[in-house]
């Protein structure tokens, strides 16, 4: 394998990860439709969903779809454990409900 082949393989893997992150971010946005106001956008090498805090229209929570071991996960901070696996959109909905109800500290 040449250096160009290796670089091409790395670029293809990063593109696939970014595409997967975007797909999952759009799925989450669709799941949250009607529950919360949301925005989907690219954030560095991942995609994210911003969710507007219902009681304070100026506050947004950003949830990123990150890839660990080529599997998507939801997180709002790199320093805390993931909110849920990528496919578990219901766990994200429950997390947001609890967070916005003040049940998470």
Describe the structure.
The chain has 105 residues and is an alpha+beta fold. The protein is 40% helix and 28% strand. It is built from 2 helices and 5 strands, in the order αβββββα. It has a 5-stranded antiparallel beta sheet, with helices on one face. α1 (3-32) crosses α2. It starts with a helix and ends in a 5-residue tail after the last helix. The model has no long low-confidence stretch (mean pLDDT 90).
Helix % is 40-55%
Strand-residue fraction? 25-35%
Weakly predicted, low-confidence segments: none
- What spatial order of strands do you see in the largest sheet? 1-2-3-4-5
The largest sheet is: 5 strands, antiparallel
Sum up the overall morphology in one term: elongated
- Average pLDDT works out at 90
Rg over CA atoms: 16 Å
Structural class: alpha+beta
Please provide the count of β strands.
5
Helical stretch tally: 2
Cα end-to-end separation: 51 Å
What is the H-and-E element order?
HEEEEEH
Which keywords apply here?
105 residues, alpha+beta, five-stranded antiparallel beta sheet, 2 helices, 5 strands, elongated
SSE order and pairing:
Layout: H1 3-32, E1 38-43, E2 46-52, E3 60-68, E4 71-75, E5 84-85, H2 89-100
Antiparallel strand pairs: 1-2, 2-3, 3-4, 4-5
Helix pairs in contact: 1-2
In brief, what are we looking at here?
By secondary structure, the chain is of the alpha+beta class. Helices cover 40% and strands 28% of the residues.
């Amino acid at each position: 394998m040449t250096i160009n082949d290796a670089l091409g393989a790395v670029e293809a893997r990063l593109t696939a990860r970014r595409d997967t992150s975007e797909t999952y971010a759009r799925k989450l946005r669709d799941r949250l439709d009607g529950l919360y106001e949301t925005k989907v956008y690219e954030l560095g090498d991942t995609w994210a969903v911003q969710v507007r805090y219902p009681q304070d229209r100026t506050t947004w929570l950003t949830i990123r779809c990150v890839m660990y071991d080529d599997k998507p996960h939801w997180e709002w901070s790199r320093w805390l454990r993931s909110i849920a696996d990528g496919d578990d959109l219901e766990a994200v909905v429950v997390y947001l409900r609890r967070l916005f109800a003040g049940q998470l500290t």
